[in-house]
Design brief:
This is PC-Esterase domain-containing protein/PMR5N domain-containing protein. It is a single-pass membrane protein. GO terms for molecular function: O-acetyltransferase activity. By secondary structure, the chain is an alpha/beta fold. It has one domain. It has 10 helices and 17 strands. The strands form 5 sheets. A 7-stranded mixed sheet has the order 4-5-6-3-9-12-13. It has a 4-stranded mixed sheet with strand order 7-8-10-11.
Amino acid sequence: MLLDRRIHFLFPVALVFILVVGIVRIVLDDLKSNKSFIFGSYGKPEEHKNRKPIFISPKDRFEEGCNVFEGQWMWDNVSYPLYTEESCPYLVKQTTCLRNGRPDSFYQNWRWQPNTCKLPRFDPLKLLGILRGKRLMFIGDSVQRGQFESMVCLVQSVIPDGKKYLYRVPPMKIFKAEEYNASIEYYWAPFMVESISDHATNHTVHKRLVNLDSIAKHGKSWEGVDYLVFESYIWWMYKPLINATYGSPDNIQEFKVPAAYKLALETWANWIKSNINPHTQKVFFMSMSPTHLWSWEWKPGSEGTCFNESYPIQDPYWGTGSNLEIMAMVGNLLQELEINITLLNITQLSEYRKDAHTTIYGERKGKLLTKEQKSDPKTFGDCIHWCLPGVPDTWNEILYAYLLQKYQNYF
Ligand SMILES: *[C@@H]1O[C@H](CO)[C@@H](O)[C@H](O)[C@H]1NC(C)=O
Ligand SMILES: *[C@@H]1O[C@H](CO)[C@@H](O)[C@H](O)[C@H]1NC(C)=O
Ligand SMILES: *[C@@H]1O[C@H](CO)[C@@H](O)[C@H](O)[C@H]1NC(C)=O
Ligand SMILES: *[C@@H]1O[C@H](CO)[C@@H](O)[C@H](O)[C@H]1NC(C)=O
Ligand SMILES: *[C@@H]1O[C@H](CO)[C@@H](O)[C@H](O)[C@H]1NC(C)=O
Ligand SMILES: *[C@@H]1O[C@H](CO)[C@@H](O)[C@H](O)[C@H]1NC(C)=O
Ligand SMILES: *[C@@H]1O[C@H](CO)[C@@H](O)[C@H](O)[C@H]1NC(C)=O
């Protein structure tokens, strides 16, 4: 591992924290699910025999060859945020930092500007046009759930009440836009492959056991989905070693994390090869979402966390939490696959955003922090998850740009 001793020691602290949040969140989601399920019995989707073409102008596409992941954050309090905490009824408490007491809102006012081209302006109607009669699914851990929620918030404002529904079928959350027969979905699979952490309500915090060669059970729920967006990183990074099985389900062994991650990726790649039809389905892979646990990384000599950070990092910056060995592994594997998969390499642009995490304005064990906990940001601050509106909106603007890029009007 490239990580130093201090990082090995600190990672578990942060991870126990997010895992507990993850579990309680899902328990709560599950409790609510009965009620929202009734609400979600929305009747048969309307017929959409004729797909309506959507108008894509040259401005909607970025220039071929432009690397949209290289650029800078520009102050833009005119166009951003793209929605507000109040305007999106689907935001969960974990991400509504302002409502939870965060005093500054600058983190909502930055626009990502690629160096050599422009990203198209996010247009929810165009996205719904693309998603007409289709499913978009986000698969991964709680960071990925944040991206799912961001996407729901980005599109939901153009859909009238009564024509949109959010409901839960653990381990999934599903948002439906009835008039478009479109769905945006989230599937909890923190390791992508199977593990003892997959149960929506009952999984252990400290014990983890990953089945590196098993994915079929998850895969059943992913079959036939039109747009799949995968992500898996932080759950692997608990210790330098991880307990896993490979080959025989009874033979539990400790694997070095990069080795285990590689085997899991290969299992996933095999699933992709035998289940994806590249003519009708598109697959995206999110690169790792960075953490900002130690302020000495961007402010040498300091001892804090991402708490009380109000501005992005301006200088070139790459945190030690973002493992380059795993990054390279993902890059190589995707290159070798005969099916085109788009890597959304959002790590660098998110690395700059030390200001955008939930810190003490999120949840711990399913509850907002107490006054005492808030006074101890070093222990209780969350520098892994992101406030919404915020950085995950930019990931979705980029995903949207790629969907437009590839979209062929169908008459
Ligand atoms: C937007 O930012 C500019 C420059 O910092 C500031 O002068 C202006 O008051 C801000 N506008 C709003 C609506 O916050
Ligand atoms: C609605 O969308 C689903 C895919 O999400 C598709 O299988 C189904 O055929 C669509 N229904 C209609 C009536 O278009
Ligand atoms: C949770 O899982 C463990 C082991 O998988 C099992 O023994 C236990 O009965 C489960 N608890 C509940 C409440 O389902
Ligand atoms: C693997 O599991 C064993 C038995 O439960 C445990 O003692 C060991 O600490 C685990 N290793 C890791 C890296 O978690
Ligand atoms: C937050 O930062 C400001 C200036 O950067 C400083 O004056 C203040 O004491 C800090 N607050 C805490 C609680 O660290
Ligand atoms: C993703 O971007 C980073 C920073 O620009 C770069 O170092 C890395 O190699 C890229 N990853 C892949 C797989 O291309
Ligand atoms: C993959 O994408 C590239 C560039 O978009 C294209 O040239 C190539 O034909 C695609 N390959 C397959 C197998 O679809």
